[in-house]
């Protein structure tokens, strides 16, 4: 009985044991500190989310915990035998390696043996006595080494992870898209079942299916998790403790994300009030020290020393980083009809990507494209823009189109050039909405200091590269924006500003994004790629897609959802859609919009019914009929959206 009580006590102590502890840790590159006497303790099974502005040092903090960066000062204590695995922000691997090889590397020495065993089994020699004997000897040696290190138990773990994430074991990394490569690196981090899992922007490049699986996995994970993320939906679903790294200081908040936002605003207000009083007192003392000769002869030396201390404190204060202020560069409006697609079909070999798709895209439409990586979204965009011919069907582009394209691979920027050179293209200034602006001043709106603006792109962080790509895109006049994963690596403040800009954008938007909150805030309608070439349109964002609609996988659209069989999670109802401020505004404005469209529809019906209508010029007749068709299509969407909003409004008793 005594030994049993001791065992239970040890179990409780282990569950509360600090896996890692940082005490007054400092780290600086240049003058500004990234970590300024930071204290942090991570205990078993904690779910911690680390947030902060781009460039504040979040990734460096993870590297400090991993031990890949040495700190300038402070102490780091780790639990003996602690196993740590990391999902890095950048993709680093050989394109010739197979998926199995990369995942096995997550098991270190045993993983190298499994990697070699898999290679030998996958590539047996052709019939030749000499090479066959050598192959058999090496296979036997590898098997014995695996038995010695009890490596066979990990074969099942690797196979399970590969199955859950639907990864093709023998595919070369170079043949996979960025999203699928990200899945592979996620599998490598998870396969070792570490005590502490470090994730740096894990949802970047992942599709909705993989993000949903990751949420489920992390919710049930037996180890501790420290995750850097700007995914607000992920934060709201899983966060129990939030860390914010701001100007070298690490603040810990126990609670959910929305409560954290309220507390943060309060803390910033207290800081602003304190700084205002401090500066007022400093100004008062500066006036005193500059008084006449008589006052200087009789001044209080203690007061002088206090003033010197105030000056030192003021010089060491790190002010709040300014908020981004970027906006789009307006141009002439496009024609009313932007893109018309009729009965589009496209397939690659036997794989159907688009099947009998028809749609009219009008000026001002903001359309999100949702579906798993590899389902055909990029192909769809190329067809819609006339860059790729469909196998059958017709695509017509409207008039006066000026297209801007945001490429998630960042091919539009030269890594050897500076941000200044990439945007300026040899110019010192550009025209922005009718006003001339110096490139340095323009880049400051995107949070580039003069020094960072002249830094080669290859030295910039992922968030800075994305802001640079937006700066280059928004420096050009556009009325049709195509944004392919624009939210990757952007901090939350930049995301929210980009949302507001796109909501007010007067042109047309085609958006590919797996950021659920972002899509819900921006999109007026959504194209859901359901697999087998079927594309369904819904009014609204992610929340508009029926819960019962399954998301297809790249390899098999009919496979069951990828949930770990070991976890045995019971299916739950999807979280209820909250009636937010955007929906409230939309509900208030819809009746007036519907009334205007109905009035115009009635006038057009009268005109078309007149005896002389078809005696007009052919172009006038066709334009009028097209206008009527657009109004009727828009009214159908408005009626449907009104019913959805009313049902949601009434269901929540508002």
Report on the structure:
This protein has 654 residues and is an alpha/beta fold. The protein is built from 21 helices and 20 strands. It has a six-stranded mixed β-sheet with strand order 5-6-7-3-8-9, with helices on both faces. A six-stranded mixed β-sheet has the order 14-17-18-12-19-20, sandwiched between helices.
Write the layout of secondary structure elements.
Elements (H helix, E strand, L loop, with lengths): L1 H15 L1 E11 L4 E11 L3 E5 L6 H9 L6 E6 L5 E4 L11 H6 L3 H15 L6 H20 L3 H13 L13 H14 L4 E5 L7 H13 L3 E5 L3 H7 L2 E6 L2 E6 L2 H33 L3 H5 L3 H16 L20 E12 L2 E12 L3 E5 L6 H8 L7 E6 L5 E4 L12 H6 L4 E4 L2 E4 H6 L5 H4 L8 H13 L5 E5 L7 H13 L3 E5 L3 H7 L2 E7 L2 E6 L41 H29 L8 H34 L3
Parallel strand pairs: 3-7, 3-8, 5-6, 6-7, 12-18, 12-19, 14-17, 17-18
Antiparallel strand pairs: 1-2, 1-4, 8-9, 10-11, 10-13, 15-16, 19-20
Helix pairs in contact: 4-5, 6-7, 10-12, 20-21
